[in-house]
Give the backbone structure.
Amino acid sequence: MDHEVSENRLRFEKSPYLLQHKENPVWWQPWDERALEFARETNRPIFLSIGYSTCHWCHVMEHESFEDQEVADFLNQNFVSIKVDREERPDLDHIYMKAIHLMGQRGGWPLSVALTPSLDPFWGGTYFPKDHFLHILRVIVQRWGESHEEISQKSGEIEKYLKMAAPLSFGDPSVIHARGEEVLDRLYEDLHESFDADFGGFNDAPKFPPTMALRFLLRAEINASEEMKRLEVRKLLDQTLHSMFRGGLFDHLGGGFARYSTDRRWLIPHFEKMLYDNANLSLVYLEAFSATKEPLYAEIARFTLSYVLDEMTDVHGGFYSAEDADSEGQEGLYYLWTQQELRKHLTQDEFDMVQRVYGVTEHGNFEEGKNHLNLLQCEDANVVFDPKFVSIREKLLTLRRTRVRPHLDDKILVCWNGLMISAFAKGFQILREERFLKAAQRGAIFLRERLDHGSRELLRRYRDGEPKISAFLDDYAYLIQGLLDLYESDFDGRWISWAVDLQRRQDERLWSTSHRAYFYAENSEDRLCQTIEFGDSAEPNANGVSTLNLLRLYSLTYNEENFRRAKDLLLHFVEQLQRHPIGYIQGAIALDFHLHHPKGVALVCNRTSQSEEVLETLQTQFLPYKTVAVSWEQEEIAEELQILKGKRPSAKVPFVAYICEDGACGAPESDPAKFKLEVPSTW
């Protein structure tokens, strides 16, 4: 037997998840040609285990099974065992998660799949206790030994169904406008019907933060023609936004949101914190503050962004991926308090206030009499931002930091960093805090210098000095979105130039001319097939984000190819939204943008207090149907910004503004005050 595949090779990897398993007695292999070739040469089935470093049930299955010598011996003798970090290789996770759903099995992580040497799946599931797992492995080995040719033939059929998941039919482009408003109305009705009127959010437990639904509702509110509907939409928004913060989903000491709530009330979370959740939720609360001027929303966004700056930011500017739910082998232990512990470390007045505000009791709301801090019983959530209470909060946070902290997954992913760049850019625009702009700029520079050298191949992951793995669709889409938001923050043309270049490469590498949509990944021999996806997951769908990117780029660059591709994608989304609206909300947001005839605002001005006031107005108001480009005096304009072509400021006319649509600009306006008053409220 080849020595290279008869030992655990994960110690050579950089993935925090793979490194967690480097000491297992299982002969784990990374997903590479050496392991796959060995499976083909020996005709062994592959046992594929997919997870991520902050996955609670991955830890449980490791302890019960993968650290167990009996399980390890059986796997080593009969399988080629391969570990995959789903955050590094989401392409594989997407394929095999869909495959087990096609088999009628429940998905989740750890994802456990048996593959033929040709990578076709023939069995799958998620977490299994040791004895059940061993029984399944024995059955698989027996069946493989008796009829591996039959298994290979039948499992090959799944690949056909996976490929069929990408739609091939196209409608008339007029359908976008003819049915667009109709499908958006139906989406709103579905959200309204599934709304939890008691606790906010949609559907029952477990409750995930409905970030895309909330962003859609913010747009639905400003478009509602009747006062009653506006009030109805605002109720859905406010109750959900308040409940998510007031419950235990939010870390009331350190800031940041956990992954999801295990109950209807948003009280007890699954305690892991993911970068993408905190990026998307920051953006939701920022937009909500921009639209409603509710001060609490600004405080929540500021607290969340500050958490990412303090705890999730690399010294060079990149953003880390996640914090674990577990510490010392127990989920949530880092975050929980007994009443006795609080009494010991607080003065009587401090304890009384904490008990009243955070609902602390002797019996607790968690196991073993422990309390997870929340504001569900607090009459006014704003009290936690009062300076007197902030000092108590900081005292408890200092005490909490003496505990054993949960594991930090410090790999840096382009896709989630793109989302975080968007959030920080919007944080600067709406909250007017320079620290957030600097965070967005440093994040972008980090990615440019370490993962996209000289516009060569964009890579997905950076950790411990190593950039690796070709970028996927979400890497391109989320980063382009982040660069567009960053450009509309500091109006530095290099961000637009980079975004345009990335979009060109995304088109070249991932656009399917036959399907008229983007593949998730390029074709590769180590991948069973290519997939095209339109549905949202915990993250916004990358084809949906790409649609909005293309429309925004078109309004700035007048590149007709961007517009044609956006319309092709919108046709897909209109079709999907007619079938199951709630599954395609990111596509609905892009459709909503297109249907409201987005405007490009071209500002040609010198740096004066008047021009800065106009920009601040454009950035702080909730104007979701606009893009902005600026030409400053004596500063070079990115050649891609065709909206600014032929427009330069002068000493004689220090301020000129144009409103443009579909490549044509209206009459220039040289009075800043008048222009500000003329900005339509529904942009």
